[in-house]
């Protein structure tokens, strides 16, 4: 069965701290294109790779990867809350293949997910329950992180597993590219913040709002040039997009985690979700990027990209 890919940056500052209308229109057009691409492909299943931002996964038990056979969206930043429509059988099949191949992914029957998953699903297919989904968490925020090469191998095995499902599978990656929003680092945080990073589920409405407001304010300051957060890096972003489009994903294996941070900020690790999605596509044969949008958007604290891709064998088949 054919497979396809859509990878996209997310940012909860969309609609909250907007850039010029011209930029919004360009992003809207790129999302319209992605939505049409997905509608034309008509996926039976979405396998979505996304990070978490201390809303669903915490330092009390922090796996590098986790596959959900059931998942619950926390509804941060006004995203849709509640259960995702998870294809439990597909999740178990994929998990077995991943574990058999020697990738020690965690597994959850009730994975808690945040805007990393929900915003992507809402923007691409309208809702967190529009299309049966297998959600795959990739830690991209909470250090320490393992080598990025492992993410490629995870994606590859997920791609092989998806190939055996007898379903039209869309791989989605959600996150990135260069950006450094104000997410606390455990080692440099005071005790009270550490506690929230260890076990911060179910914050009060006031706590959640205060946190969200801090990020929104940071976006305003960043766009005004008065924030201390790291600049976006459009050159690095373009370079990454070129490598992903080339299919030579092993090139990224040599990039160290420190280099990601130096070049593109702490949250650039979120491109792990893109690497996994592209590796999953790659496992199904040579592919072609069919559309690629990029803008550096400081208002959203995001090197913001949207790409779509198809394996050559899925082109023009249905
Ligand atoms: O609230 C947070 O923890 C971070 C929100 C956030 C902001 C900009 C870009 C992102 O990718 C993102 O996730
Ligand atoms: Fe993010």
TrEMBL record:
Gene: mhpB
GO terms, molecular function: 3-carboxyethylcatechol 2,3-dioxygenase activity; ferrous iron binding
Cofactor(s) this protein cannot do without: Fe(2+)
Family indicated by similarity: Belongs to the LigB/MhpB extradiol dioxygenase family.
Species for this entry: Rhodococcus pyridinivorans
Pfam families: LigB
Segments forming domain Extradiol ring-cleavage dioxygenase class III enzyme subunit B: 7-304
Catalytic reactions of this protein: (2E)-3-(2,3-dihydroxyphenyl)prop-2-enoate + O2 = (2Z,4E,7E)-2-hydroxy-6-oxonona-2,4,7-trienedioate + H(+); 3-(2,3-dihydroxyphenyl)propanoate + O2 = (2Z,4E)-2-hydroxy-6-oxonona-2,4-dienedioate + H(+)
EC number, UniProt record: 1.13.11.16
Physiological role: Catalyzes the non-heme iron(II)-dependent oxidative cleavage of 2,3-dihydroxyphenylpropionic acid and 2,3-dihydroxicinnamic acid into 2-hydroxy-6-ketononadienedioate and 2-hydroxy-6-ketononatrienedioate, respectively.
Assembly behavior: Homotetramer.
Enzyme class: oxidoreductase
One BP annotation, GO: 3-phenylpropionate catabolic process
Keyword Protein biosynthesis applies: no
Protein name: 2,3-dihydroxyphenylpropionate/2,3-dihydroxicinnamic acid 1,2-dioxygenase
Keywords: Aromatic hydrocarbons catabolism, Dioxygenase, Iron, Oxidoreductase
Active site residues per record: 115, 179
Pathway note: Aromatic compound metabolism; 3-phenylpropanoate degradation
Entry coiled-coil feature ranges: none
């Amino acid at each position: 069965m054919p497979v396809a890919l859509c990878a996209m940056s997310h940012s909860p500052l969309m609609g909250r701290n907007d850039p010029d209308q011209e930029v919004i229109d360009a992003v809207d057009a790129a999302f319209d294109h992605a939505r049409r691409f997905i509608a034309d492909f008509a996926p039976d299943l979405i396998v979505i790779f996304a990070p978490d931002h201390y809303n669903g996964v915490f330092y009390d038990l922090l796996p590098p990867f986790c596959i959900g056979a059931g998942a619950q969206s926390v509804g941060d930043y006004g995203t849709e809350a509640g259960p995702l429509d998870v294809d439990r059988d597909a999740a178990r099949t994929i998990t077995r293949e991943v574990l058999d191949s020697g990738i020690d992914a965690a597994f959850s029957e009730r994975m808690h997910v945040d805007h990393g998953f929900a915003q992507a699903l809402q923007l691409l297919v309208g809702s967190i329950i529009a299309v049966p989904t297998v959600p795959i968490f990739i830690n991209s925020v909470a250090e320490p992180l393992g080598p990025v090469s492992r993410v490629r191998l995870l994606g590859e095995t997920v791609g092989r597993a998806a190939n055996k499902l007898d379903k039209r599978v869309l791989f989605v990656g959600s996150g990135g590219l260069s950006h450094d929003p104000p997410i606390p680092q455990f080692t440099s945080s005071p005790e009270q913040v550490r506690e929230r990073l260890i076990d911060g589920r179910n914050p009060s409405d006031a706590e959640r709002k205060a946190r969200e407001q801090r990020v929104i304010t940071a976006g305003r300051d960043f766009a005004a040039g008065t924030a201390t957060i790291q600049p976006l890096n459009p050159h690095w972003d373009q370079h990454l997009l070129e490598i992903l489009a080339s299919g030579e994903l092993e090139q990224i294996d040599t990039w160290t985690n420190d280099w990601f941070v130096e070049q593109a900020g702490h949250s650039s690790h979120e491109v792990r979700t893109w690497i996994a999605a592209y590796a999953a596509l790659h496992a199904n044969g040579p592919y072609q990027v069919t559309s690629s949008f990029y803008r550096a958007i400081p208002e959203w604290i995001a090197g913001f990209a949207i790409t779509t891709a198809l394996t050559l064998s899925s082109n023009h088949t249905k």
